[in-house]
Amino acid sequence: MNITHRPVLLAEAVTALISGPLIQNSNPSNKILVIDGTFGRGGHTQALLSKLDSNARMISFDKDLDAIAVAEKINDPRLSIVHNSFAQMDQYAEPESVDGILLDLGISSPQVDEAHRGFSFRREGPLDMRMNTEQGLTAAEWLEQASQEEITHVIKTYGEERFAFQIAKAIVAKREVGQSPKTTTQLASLVASVVRTREAGQDPATRTFQALRIFINRELEDLELGLKAALAVLKPGARLAVISFHSLEDRIVKQFLQAHAKVEVPRGLPVREKDLPQSVLEIIGRVKPSDEEVQENPRARSAIMRVAEKRMGSLV
After folding, report:
1. Bridging pattern class, strands 304-310 and 281-287
2. Which residue, of 13, 86, 112, 225, has the greatest Cβ tally within 10 A?
3. How many whole angstroms separate alpha carbon 282 and alpha carbon 187?
4. Quick one: DSSP state of residue 56?
5. Residue 60, strand partner residues
6. Share of the chain above pLDDT 90, in %
7. Do 277 and 263 form a contact (C-beta atoms < 8 A)?
8. What is the DSSP secondary structure assignment for residue 133, as one 8-state letter?
């Protein structure tokens, strides 16, 4: 299968970072450092590299070995590839050393479209779902050992699935007779037998597969750690752009940015506005894909990019 990945909000993400004051006002003597938190298939990484001068450096992270294999074929001395989660970026960059960070969350088209990865309910394959296939339990292994309460919690919390209890009960019932789901289509069929109603155009298994993928890969935990790490390594004046694809991710990003874009002062404290300490971040804005992009790439329809800039002279 010839699988391609179309990076979402490509031009908008590049513009958001490149137009930041540090990169915009840089000169050849400045050693610009940019981080791409998820290499994927390299769309954002290569577009950013095309805008940076020969003295710049870029670090691209990915947990997926297939993505790393693609990245290692790029012949550009400015690019360093790290097989790890972007949550660990503060282990690869010094505090306040980075001029721009892009976090493109979620899952790439090749991961969904390659049946053996186990992410898609539409394609028969082993129920794996791990982004890093070198570590951790597969989704099938976890479903084989988790309690009904645990399965309910994961599907309800990470999938926002109102039939979570019924789905978990059905999974455990199958397991008790030696028929625990081992493939994507087995799980999808099992979910469909329980979920009787669903939004128009949405497969009954959509929310369950999303929940298991997020849980198995610790996506929300990585996001929270990654945002904290990004704030620590960004230089004052540098920008952070985060592209999310569902409400759970976007809520975390929105709340994090808002929390660091305001200063909390105890109620009743006699402080004049000009004497308040400066907030750490300034929120630049929010961007959604154009109608044209969504028409050309339907997977972009739920994307939201939030951009913030670390204030000059701010203290984390």
Report:
1. antiparallel
2. 86
3. 44
4. -
5. 36, 81
6. 77
7. yes
8. T
Centre a 10 Å sphere on the Cβ of residue 73 and count the other Cβ atoms it contains.
Answer: 7
Q: List, in sequence order, every beta strand (DSSP E) within 230-280.
A: 234-244
Cα distance between residue 193 and residue 183, in whole Å: 16
First to last CA, the chain: 47
User: Which residue in the block uniquely carries the two structure tokens 């660091």?
Assistant: 260
Determine contact, residues 238/97, Cβ cutoff 8 Å: no
List the one residue out of 168, 171, 189, 188 whose CA is nearest residue 180. 171
| CA torsion angle 172 173 177 178 (round to 10) | -30
Q: What 3-state DSSP class applies to 305?
A: strand
Question: What is the C-alpha to C-alpha distance for residues 9 and 15, in angstroms, rounded to an integer?
Answer: 10
- Amino acid 2: pLDDT: 40
DSSP, collapsed to helix, strand or coil, labels residue 252 as helix
Kind of pairing, strands 234-244 and 304-310?
Answer: antiparallel
Query: What are the distances in angstroms from CA 10 to CA 6, 17, 104, 186?
Result: 9, 11, 10, 36
Work out the angle between the directed axes of helices 184-194 and 164-176 (0-180°, nearest 10).
120
Q: How far is CA 41 from CA 72, 95, 240, in A?
A: 11, 28, 20
Q: What is the mean pLDDT of residues 175-199?
A: 92
List pLDDT tens digits, range 38-50: 999 999 999 999 9
| Position 238 pLDDT exceeds 80 | yes
Q: CA-to-CA distance for 142 and 11, rounded, in angstroms?
A: 39
pLDDT of residue 270: 57
Domains of the chain: 10-109+219-310 (3.40.50.150), 137-216 (1.10.150.170)
pLDDT digits (tens, 9 = 90+) for 70-90: 999 999 999 999 999 999 999
Give the SS3 label for residue 35: strand
CB distance 165 to 197 below 8 Å? no
Q: Is the pLDDT assigned to residue 269 strictly greater than 60?
A: no
What is the identity of the amino acid at 107? I
